[in-house]
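Entry for the shared binder. Reason: the reviewer on the internal report wants the predicted structure included alongside the sequence.
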Amino acid sequence: MKIFFHSLIKKLEAENTYWHKNTIIMLDNATYHSCSSTLKILEDLGVPVLFTGPHSYSASPVELFFAAFKSSDINPRKAPTGKK
């Protein structure tokens, strides 16, 4: 996680030094997103975070993208992906 967030911040900084004023990173409550080590990394980097509620797929538009992506682009045989 640390490497990912450091890379993300570096990219955001390169595009706009004021990214933190108009950007919020939206995460679900997966254990690896909400564990103390991840929260510490996010706090140290000054990343504004919004956690979605449990099972709130409709509140997270990226879930619709990933559902479509998993069902077509990377899943040509249409194998079950675990979500309907």
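Summary line for the report: The radius of gyration is 15 Å.
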